[in-house]
Design a protein that fits this description.
Elements lengths: L5 H43 L4 H11 L11 H13 L3 H12 L10 H24 L4 H12 L8 H11 L4 H14 L11
Protein backbone atom coordinates (compact mmCIF):
# COMPACT_ATOMS: atom_id res chain seq x y z
CA UNK A 1 0.00 0.00 0.00
CA UNK A 2 1.39 3.36 -1.03
CA UNK A 3 2.14 5.88 1.73
CA UNK A 4 -0.39 8.66 2.28
CA UNK A 5 0.27 11.79 0.33
CA UNK A 6 0.50 15.16 2.12
CA UNK A 7 -3.00 16.01 0.84
CA UNK A 8 -4.46 12.78 2.20
CA UNK A 9 -2.74 13.31 5.53
CA UNK A 10 -4.21 16.83 5.71
CA UNK A 11 -7.73 15.55 4.96
CA UNK A 12 -7.45 12.77 7.55
CA UNK A 13 -6.16 15.20 10.17
CA UNK A 14 -9.04 17.55 9.41
CA UNK A 15 -11.60 14.76 9.82
CA UNK A 16 -10.09 13.66 13.12
CA UNK A 17 -10.09 17.26 14.38
CA UNK A 18 -13.75 17.66 13.36
CA UNK A 19 -14.82 14.44 15.09
CA UNK A 20 -12.94 15.29 18.26
CA UNK A 21 -14.41 18.80 18.16
CA UNK A 22 -17.98 17.48 17.82
CA UNK A 23 -17.47 15.11 20.74
CA UNK A 24 -16.05 17.95 22.80
CA UNK A 25 -19.07 20.20 22.03
CA UNK A 26 -21.48 17.37 22.91
CA UNK A 27 -19.64 16.77 26.18
CA UNK A 28 -19.84 20.47 27.05
CA UNK A 29 -23.58 20.55 26.32
CA UNK A 30 -24.16 17.47 28.48
CA UNK A 31 -22.17 19.02 31.29
CA UNK A 32 -24.13 22.26 31.00
CA UNK A 33 -27.42 20.35 31.04
CA UNK A 34 -26.38 18.50 34.20
CA UNK A 35 -25.40 21.78 35.87
CA UNK A 36 -28.79 23.31 35.00
CA UNK A 37 -30.66 20.31 36.38
CA UNK A 38 -28.73 20.52 39.65
CA UNK A 39 -29.24 24.29 39.82
CA UNK A 40 -32.99 24.08 39.43
CA UNK A 41 -33.26 21.35 42.05
CA UNK A 42 -31.33 23.50 44.50
CA UNK A 43 -33.36 26.59 43.61
CA UNK A 44 -36.66 24.79 44.21
CA UNK A 45 -35.44 23.59 47.61
CA UNK A 46 -34.23 27.10 48.48
CA UNK A 47 -37.57 28.58 47.39
CA UNK A 48 -39.54 26.21 49.60
CA UNK A 49 -37.14 27.00 52.46
CA UNK A 50 -37.94 30.70 52.29
CA UNK A 51 -35.38 32.13 49.84
CA UNK A 52 -38.11 33.77 47.80
CA UNK A 53 -35.88 35.10 45.02
CA UNK A 54 -35.18 31.46 44.15
CA UNK A 55 -38.87 30.96 43.46
CA UNK A 56 -38.49 33.47 40.65
CA UNK A 57 -35.25 32.03 39.25
CA UNK A 58 -36.53 28.45 39.30
CA UNK A 59 -39.86 29.46 37.81
CA UNK A 60 -38.08 31.34 35.06
CA UNK A 61 -35.98 28.29 34.20
CA UNK A 62 -39.12 26.19 33.76
CA UNK A 63 -40.86 28.92 31.78
CA UNK A 64 -37.93 29.91 29.53
CA UNK A 65 -36.49 26.42 29.25
CA UNK A 66 -35.01 27.13 25.81
CA UNK A 67 -32.27 29.19 27.48
CA UNK A 68 -31.36 26.34 29.82
CA UNK A 69 -30.23 23.03 28.25
CA UNK A 70 -31.34 20.06 30.33
CA UNK A 71 -34.55 21.77 31.52
CA UNK A 72 -37.88 20.77 30.01
CA UNK A 73 -40.73 23.24 29.79
CA UNK A 74 -43.12 22.83 32.69
CA UNK A 75 -45.70 25.60 32.94
CA UNK A 76 -47.41 23.97 35.91
CA UNK A 77 -44.20 24.00 37.97
CA UNK A 78 -43.38 27.51 36.81
CA UNK A 79 -46.80 28.79 37.89
CA UNK A 80 -46.51 26.95 41.21
CA UNK A 81 -43.11 28.48 42.02
CA UNK A 82 -44.13 31.99 40.96
CA UNK A 83 -47.33 31.72 43.01
CA UNK A 84 -45.43 30.43 46.05
CA UNK A 85 -43.14 33.45 45.96
CA UNK A 86 -45.92 35.89 45.17
CA UNK A 87 -48.08 34.73 48.06
CA UNK A 88 -45.16 35.56 50.34
CA UNK A 89 -44.59 39.04 48.96
CA UNK A 90 -41.99 38.48 46.21
CA UNK A 91 -42.75 41.11 43.57
CA UNK A 92 -40.74 39.48 40.77
CA UNK A 93 -42.68 36.24 41.14
CA UNK A 94 -45.99 38.13 41.05
CA UNK A 95 -44.92 40.11 38.00
CA UNK A 96 -43.68 37.18 35.96
CA UNK A 97 -46.72 35.08 36.76
CA UNK A 98 -48.88 38.00 35.67
CA UNK A 99 -46.98 38.43 32.41
CA UNK A 100 -47.19 34.72 31.66
CA UNK A 101 -50.96 34.70 32.22
CA UNK A 102 -51.47 37.90 30.25
CA UNK A 103 -50.23 36.29 27.06
CA UNK A 104 -51.70 32.84 27.64
CA UNK A 105 -54.60 31.27 25.79
CA UNK A 106 -56.08 31.58 22.29
CA UNK A 107 -55.55 34.97 20.68
CA UNK A 108 -57.44 34.52 17.43
CA UNK A 109 -60.45 36.72 16.74
CA UNK A 110 -62.94 33.89 16.25
CA UNK A 111 -62.90 32.36 19.69
CA UNK A 112 -65.69 30.09 20.83
CA UNK A 113 -67.33 30.52 24.22
CA UNK A 114 -64.93 28.15 25.97
CA UNK A 115 -61.92 30.00 24.52
CA UNK A 116 -63.35 33.31 25.72
CA UNK A 117 -63.90 31.91 29.20
CA UNK A 118 -60.30 30.67 29.41
CA UNK A 119 -58.79 33.89 28.10
CA UNK A 120 -60.97 36.01 30.38
CA UNK A 121 -59.83 34.00 33.40
CA UNK A 122 -56.16 34.38 32.44
CA UNK A 123 -56.44 38.12 31.80
CA UNK A 124 -58.25 38.69 35.10
CA UNK A 125 -55.58 36.77 37.01
CA UNK A 126 -52.83 38.56 35.10
CA UNK A 127 -54.17 41.95 36.20
CA UNK A 128 -54.35 40.81 39.81
CA UNK A 129 -50.78 39.52 39.92
CA UNK A 130 -49.29 42.46 38.05
CA UNK A 131 -51.15 44.92 40.28
CA UNK A 132 -49.89 43.13 43.37
CA UNK A 133 -46.33 43.31 42.04
CA UNK A 134 -46.76 47.01 41.38
CA UNK A 135 -48.16 47.66 44.84
CA UNK A 136 -45.28 45.83 46.53
CA UNK A 137 -43.08 48.53 45.03
CA UNK A 138 -39.91 46.69 44.04
CA UNK A 139 -40.82 45.88 40.42
CA UNK A 140 -42.05 49.16 38.96
CA UNK A 141 -41.99 47.83 35.42
CA UNK A 142 -45.02 45.73 36.43
CA UNK A 143 -46.92 49.02 36.89
CA UNK A 144 -46.24 49.74 33.23
CA UNK A 145 -47.95 46.49 32.25
CA UNK A 146 -50.94 47.24 34.48
CA UNK A 147 -51.22 50.63 32.79
CA UNK A 148 -51.05 49.03 29.36
CA UNK A 149 -53.82 46.60 30.24
CA UNK A 150 -56.08 49.49 31.24
CA UNK A 151 -55.10 51.55 28.20
CA UNK A 152 -55.54 48.75 25.67
CA UNK A 153 -58.43 46.90 27.30
CA UNK A 154 -59.16 43.24 26.71
CA UNK A 155 -61.85 40.62 26.94
CA UNK A 156 -61.88 40.89 30.74
CA UNK A 157 -61.21 44.60 31.20
CA UNK A 158 -62.72 47.81 29.87
CA UNK A 159 -60.36 50.53 28.73
CA UNK A 160 -59.84 53.08 31.48
CA UNK A 161 -57.45 55.93 30.77
CA UNK A 162 -57.59 57.27 34.32
CA UNK A 163 -56.35 53.97 35.73
CA UNK A 164 -53.80 53.68 32.95
CA UNK A 165 -52.40 57.12 33.78
CA UNK A 166 -52.34 56.23 37.47
CA UNK A 167 -50.14 53.19 36.94
CA UNK A 168 -47.94 54.86 34.34
CA UNK A 169 -47.26 57.64 36.83
CA UNK A 170 -46.15 55.06 39.42
CA UNK A 171 -43.72 53.49 36.97
CA UNK A 172 -42.37 56.83 35.73
CA UNK A 173 -39.57 58.04 35.84
CA UNK A 174 -37.92 54.68 36.58
CA UNK A 175 -39.48 53.15 33.46
CA UNK A 176 -38.98 55.47 30.50
CA UNK A 177 -41.68 53.93 28.31
CA UNK A 178 -44.22 54.54 31.08
CA UNK A 179 -43.32 58.24 31.03
CA UNK A 180 -43.85 58.37 27.27
CA UNK A 181 -47.22 56.62 27.49
CA UNK A 182 -48.29 58.91 30.33
CA UNK A 183 -47.39 62.00 28.29
CA UNK A 184 -49.50 60.75 25.39
CA UNK A 185 -52.49 60.11 27.64
CA UNK A 186 -52.20 63.56 29.22
CA UNK A 187 -52.00 65.17 25.78
CA UNK A 188 -55.03 63.25 24.51
CA UNK A 189 -57.32 63.16 27.55
CA UNK A 190 -56.01 65.82 29.91
CA UNK A 191 -54.44 65.52 33.34
CA UNK A 192 -57.74 65.37 35.24
CA UNK A 193 -59.61 63.31 32.64
CA UNK A 194 -62.01 60.72 34.04
CA UNK A 195 -62.67 59.31 30.61
CA UNK A 196 -63.49 55.61 30.47
CA UNK A 197 -63.36 54.24 26.96
CA UNK A 198 -65.35 51.08 26.60
CA UNK A 199 -63.89 48.09 24.83
CA UNK A 200 -65.38 47.84 21.34
Amino acid sequence: MSPATPIKRTIIAGLVFTIVGCVSVADRLDARANVNRIKIQNEVLACKSGELFRCFTAGKRYERYYHYPGIERNREKSDELYAFGCERGAALSCAHLGLSLRHRGPSHSRMDEEDRRIVKRHRTSALQFLTKACNIGTANWSCLHVGRMYEEGNIALEKNMTEAAKYYSIACPEVESACKRLSKLIAKYGVTSNTTVRQQ
